[in-house]
Structure formats: C-alpha cells, structure tokens
Amino acid sequence: MSVPTVRISSGMIEALAKKTNGEKFIKAVNEVSVVDGYVHVMPLKDWQDIQVDFGLMKSRGVGDTVAKFTKAIGIKPCGGCKKRREKFNQAVPYKPEEDVPQSQK
Q: What is the model's pLDDT at position 67?
C-alpha cells in the first residue's frame, strides 16, 4: 500500500512561511519533503501535522492537542511521538464543525 503524498509549490511554501514562524516552518517542511524542481513532495500526514503545528489548520484530534502541549512546555519529540500522535488522533478525533449540531455550537 502506498503512502498518500502531497505536492506543494515552493512559492506556496514561501507564502505560508510568511504567515508563520518563517525559518522554523521551512525547516519543518524540508525535514519531511523531497524537492522535485520547484515542488515539495511529502507524505500527506506529515503535511497535515506541519499545518496543525504552525496554526494553519485546526487540531484533528487528541494527538494534535498533546503534541501542541508538549511542544509548548519544551518537550522535544522522539521517534515514537509521531506514531502516538497518529494513534491518539484515530482513537479520539475531533468532529468537524459541520458535523456538530447547531444547538451545540
């Protein structure tokens, strides 16, 4: 089974870097992507994690929230952190807003 990937132009990466913590954002992208000409190719999950980490996307579940918290208090991620984040997000996902009844908003 192949891993879903995403292709993002270097221009888009630069534009998003201006909206976030520039150098750290670019470093995070470069750690997980392969550059093919002017396009960064990376696993979709890694791209989603980066978007959540830099506030470009809402947390998908408890795993994202735990990752944000541990980062905020200065705990550096280890090799198992990514797997735990994914497992927690699958076990306790947050509902998209369109799935929440109007009475609960």
A: 92
Nearest residue to 60 via CA among 89, 87, 101: 89
Per-10-residue mean pLDDT of the chain, 105 residues long, equals 87 90 90 91 92 91 93 88 92 75 51
Contact 47, 8 (CB under 8 A): yes
Instruction: Please state, as a whole number, how many other Cβ atoms lie within 10 Å of the Cβ of residue 54.
Output: 17
The Cβ of residue 48 has, within 10 Å, a number of other Cβ atoms equal to: 16
- Start-end of H helices in the chain: 10-19, 22-32, 44-53, 62-72, 81-91
Phi then psi for residue 76, to 5 deg, are -80, 140
